[in-house]
Amino acid sequence: MELRCVHCGFGVKTLFVQYSPGNIRLMKCENCKVVADEYIECEIMILLIDLILLKRKAYRHLLYNMLNREMFDTKGILWKACFLFLILDACRTLVFNRSQEDRCLSSSSFSSAWVCGKMLMNVCLGNLTFFYILVVATRLSLRSSSKETGYIDILLAILVSSYFKIFLIAMMVWEFPSSVIFIIDGFVLSSNAVSLKVMTEMTTIQCLGVCFSAHAMKFLASQILECWTVAGEVRSLYETKCCIVTELQLTREGR
């Protein structure tokens, strides 16, 4: 990925010229004739505020100029972002099912292992579905466009723009209404749509449609897995009950 102007998205060769340590001059964009990236001289807090406000120029700075492949090990960042994304998604599942989890964990170590295994399957299957639908839908939307975006760039943009999930850690420490989870999901969806628009230059409606479809399919996959596991638990309880009844009948006949 080449460096970009944060205002118009036009490619630039360099963002600044350094004359001496601490003495730099910001370069102007040849297209819009303004400073290509003023975030270079800004504090990180200003960037965070603009990211929360969903400003596209902040996302261009983050995705093109900060996480540039020629300057950083993008694959290393990608793997770390994937791991953190899955951890935060597991936190969301724990917070959302807190009451059910407490009852299960207090029963036995077997049920604890079952709950952890079910949560792991839920997180992995849901996110595999999410990223598959996201990449496929993005590719289909870009068929009529001359711009080509690699799936690694799309994946990195979605992972980085899901930073709102970090607030789920606070929900594990302090009590919050469960509705806060859906508010965070809404912020994540909006942030994903903005990052996808910056990365692919699709229309806002297309980006919202792609992200909403991916999140909806992720939710559907999680619900299907939940129904399947519940059906398995009911079947297991029914078989256990039948075994107990059979043993009681045999005991009575023996007497």
TrEMBL record:
<feature type="transmembrane region" description="Helical">
    <location>
        <begin position="154"/>
        <end position="174"/>
    </location>
</feature>
<keyword id="KW-0443">Lipid metabolism</keyword>
<comment type="function">
    <text>Mediator of sterol homeostasis involved in sterol uptake, trafficking and distribution into membranes.</text>
</comment>
<dbReference type="GO" id="GO:0016125">
    <property type="term" value="P:sterol metabolic process"/>
</dbReference>
<comment type="similarity">
    <text>Belongs to the ARV1 family.</text>
</comment>
<comment type="function">
    <text>Regulates also the sphingolipid metabolism.</text>
</comment>
<keyword id="KW-0445">Lipid transport</keyword>
<dbReference type="GO" id="GO:0006665">
    <property type="term" value="P:sphingolipid metabolic process"/>
</dbReference>
<feature type="transmembrane region" description="Helical">
    <location>
        <begin position="77"/>
        <end position="99"/>
    </location>
</feature>
<keyword id="KW-0813">Transport</keyword>
<feature type="transmembrane region" description="Helical">
    <location>
        <begin position="119"/>
        <end position="142"/>
    </location>
</feature>
<dbReference type="GO" id="GO:0005789">
    <property type="term" value="C:endoplasmic reticulum membrane"/>
</dbReference>
<dbReference type="GO" id="GO:0097036">
    <property type="term" value="P:regulation of plasma membrane sterol distribution"/>
</dbReference>
<protein>
    <recommendedName>
        <fullName>Protein ARV</fullName>
    </recommendedName>
</protein>
<keyword id="KW-0256">Endoplasmic reticulum</keyword>
<keyword id="KW-1133">Transmembrane helix</keyword>
<dbReference type="GO" id="GO:0005794">
    <property type="term" value="C:Golgi apparatus"/>
</dbReference>
<dbReference type="Pfam" id="PF04161">
    <property type="entry name" value="Arv1"/>
</dbReference>
<keyword id="KW-0812">Transmembrane</keyword>
<dbReference type="InterPro" id="IPR007290">
    <property type="entry name" value="Arv1"/>
</dbReference>
<dbReference type="GO" id="GO:0032366">
    <property type="term" value="P:intracellular sterol transport"/>
</dbReference>
<keyword id="KW-0472">Membrane</keyword>
<dbReference type="GO" id="GO:0032541">
    <property type="term" value="C:cortical endoplasmic reticulum"/>
</dbReference>
<keyword id="KW-0746">Sphingolipid metabolism</keyword>
